[in-house]
Design goal:
Blueprint lengths: L13 H4 L10 E2 L1 E6 L3 H10 L5 E4 L6 H10 L4 E7 L20 H12 L7 E6 L1 H4 L2 H13 L3 E4 L8 H8 L3 E3 L2 E2 L6 H18 L4 E4 L2 H11 L8 E2 L11
Parallel strand pairs: 1-10, 2-3, 2-9, 3-4, 4-5, 5-6, 6-7, 8-9
Helix pairs in contact: 2-9, 4-6, 6-7, 8-9
C-alpha cells in the first residue's frame, strides 16, 4: 500500500513527475500494454521485450507489485494503473471486488478508487480495466475524472467502446485525457496484429497521433516489439501516453 497520489509542494503533478521521456516528432504513436502482474512470466517478458517508450498497465490486484513496479520503471516504461470499472455484462464479467459501478453512491466509488490508487506509487495515469458501461455514463464518470485530475493524473480511455462519454466529460472538466484508437490484439494472430499496427500508423498520419492498446499475450509482445523497430524509418515516433495527453484547460 502507498499514499494517495497528489501534487507536490511545488505544484508538480504525478503525470509530469512519472512521465517517461518522449521524442518530439510530429507523428506520435503511443502503445499501452495492459495486464502486467497477472502472470509473472508474461509480465517479465513484456517489461524486458518491449521498447522503453511502450506504456505499461499494472493491475491493482497484482501480486509482487513492488517487484514489477521497480522492474518496469528501471526499464524506462511509463506506468498506468488499471482501475476496475463496470462492463455491460457485469456480473457475468466481473473485474473484481473493488469495481467502480454505475448506480453506486459516489462515496462508495470514491472509496474503491482510493483503494486502487493506493496499491502502489510511481504511475503517471489511470486507465480502465473493462468498464464499457461506466464509461458510457457521464454521471458516474465525472466524479472519477475530477478526482484523478485533482490528484495530477491523466486518464487513458482504452477506446474499447464507441459509447464512451469520456472525451466529452474530460473536455468539460478540463481533465488530462487520452483515448485509444485501436485494440491491437482482439484477434491474437501475428497477421492480424501486424495489420492493426499498420492501421494505427494510417490513423496517426491523419491525426498526428494514435494510441494502440494490447494485452500481454506473447504474440502481442513479439509483434509490437518487432513493429516498433521500423516506426522511425517510416516517420513515426513511439512515445509514452503522457506525450499526447490533452492538457487541462
Amino acid at each position: 500500500m502507498g499514499p494517495l497520489p497528489r501534487l507536490a509542494d511545488d505544484g508538480r503533478k504525478p503525470m509530469i513527475a512519472y512521465a517517461a521521456p518522449a521524442a518530439a516528432g510530429k507523428l506520435k504513436i503511443p502503445i499501452v500494454m495492459t495486464g502486467l502482474g497477472l502472470s509473472a512470466k508474461a509480465t517479465q517478458a513484456a517489461i524486458t521485450g518491449l521498447p522503453p517508450a511502450v506504456t505499461v498497465g499494472l493491475l491493482p490486484y497484482a501480486s509482487d507489485v513492488p517487484r514489477w513496479l521497480s522492474a518496469a520503471r528501471a526499464a524506462g516504461h511509463e506506468l498506468v494503473l488499471q482501475v476496475p470499472m463496470e462492463p455491460f455484462d457485469f456480473p457475468d464479467c466481473d473485474p473484481g471486488p473493488y469495481t467502480l459501478r454505475v448506480g453506486s453512491m459516489s462515496s462508495v466509488n470514491a472509496e474503491r478508487l482510493n483503494w486502487a490508487l493506493t496499491r502502489f506509487t510511481g504511475y503517471a495515469g489511470v486507465t480502465n480495466l473493462l468498464g464499457d458501461r461506466l464509461l458510457s455514463d457521464s454521471e458516474a464518470l465525472a466524479p472519477i475524472l475530477t478526482t484523478l485530475s485533482r490528484r495530477g493524473l491523466y486518464f487513458y480511455d482504452t477506446g474499447g467502446t464507441s459509447r464512451s462519454v469520456a472525451p466529452t466529460v474530460a473536455g468539460s472538466l478540463g481533465a488530462p485525457f487520452a483515448q485509444g484508437a485501436q485494440s491491437l490484439d482482439t484477434i491474437q494472430s501475428a497477421l492480424e496484429i501486424d495489420r492493426r499496427l499498420a492501421e494505427l500508423e494510417n490513423t496517426a498520419r491523419t491525426h498526428g497521433s494514435a494510441v494502440g492498446t494490447a494485452f500481454l499475450y506473447p504474440v502481442s509482445v513479439e509483434r509490437i516489439a518487432l513493429g516498433a523497430k521500423g516506426l522511425q524509418s517510416r516517420g513515426f515516433d513511439l512515445v509514452p501516453v503522457s506525450a499526447i495527453v490533452t492538457a487541462p484547460q
